[in-house]
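Hi X.,

You mentioned you wanted examples for the new student's onboarding notes, showing what a folding record looks like when two proteins sit in one file. Here is a clean example. The first protein comes first, with its sequence line followed by its structure tokens.
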Amino acid sequence: MDRALGSDRKVLVDLPAQSARALSRWLESGAVLAFARDMGVKLYFWHVSDGGYDSINELSRALGFFGGSLQMIVVKNFGRAQDFSQLDEAPAAQALLSAGGRIVQLPALHAATMFKIDRSGASFWAAVTNQDAPYGLSPMERQRTRLWLNQAYAEIDRAL
């Protein structure tokens, strides 16, 4: 929260799966939601989903914790799954949309390119801009990653 107050930049906090309960306790312990509202800081809860059973259950839990207190956005991660019918049909997805939440899609990056980037631990930005990196993306792989990043950024912008 201090970083969000100290700059015009967006702050992203990446938490592991199944952390909604701990996040809820942290938010309550400092009355963070009221504080953010008073300070003019917009908070969003992003739930990245593979469309599977555990992901949908975690979304249900998060909706229970945060309900209408946070803007919620679900990301269908096509890099991890292709079939989101279970999520689409879930009561949690309907509850999310009824509460004004959004669902966006993160496209899949070419599998071999994703593997090279993941294996190196590099950011996508580094993979696109650093031609001499040890993971050695080819010019075409950098191009694919650049296009994928543009699509991902467009989806994020659409959600916000």
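Then the second protein repeats the pattern, sequence line and then tokens:
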Amino acid sequence: MKNTSSKDACDKLIFALDANNYEEALSWVELLSGYVGMFKIGKELFTAVGPEIIKSIKEKGQKVFLDLKFHDIPNTVARAAQAAVSLGVDMFNVHASGGGQMIKEAVFATRTCADKLGMAGPVVLAVTVLTSLNNDDLTEIGFQKDTSELVLHLAKLAKQSGASGVVASAQDIVMLRKNLGDKFIIVTPGIRSATETKKDDQKRTLSAYEAIKTGADYIVVGRPIRTAVDPLDACRKIVQEIDAGLTGR
């Protein structure tokens, strides 16, 4: 390790690699390798540069979370899942609102493809409710449930359909742990540092310390590191918060 924080704490930190081009993305990987456990590739970067960035990150011995939130007819999502396995990603997600059959077929395709390739398959997560949405947003869309009710409903559906875990707001962790147990993986996005006061489009989030202490398995951090004057120092501080959160459990 390059720093003094525990490896367990670093492993729980996923960096949102929201870069505009291949070179910028690789520079972040080179800077943060050894300080974070996984690099998240979302729609922005994947659309800009394609699968080559995944290959490059894997060649550097780093883990990849492919965050494309697959949501389509079951057959299409199953084929996308197979493609994700072939790329060697360590984690990817689908939208739970795509339905139980879609999730089941994605999980089955993942396992089948991984077995065929003789490799460990990636973790399959289901996205519940985006952290940028609140109750008013759900009402506008047409949902009858509030955020907590809908998150729990979709998380239960995901578990019943074979997903390994969910992507959910840190504010939903207590409820999810109570209803789904300790082994169901919870990844919480939009996490901020405890010292950060800047507001953005994330409406339902917590600090890194609070999320981990409450029971998150992984946290996703982007802008608090990416826009910091000293990104590496910001990363170290978040890892320290994770370490404190683990100690406080």
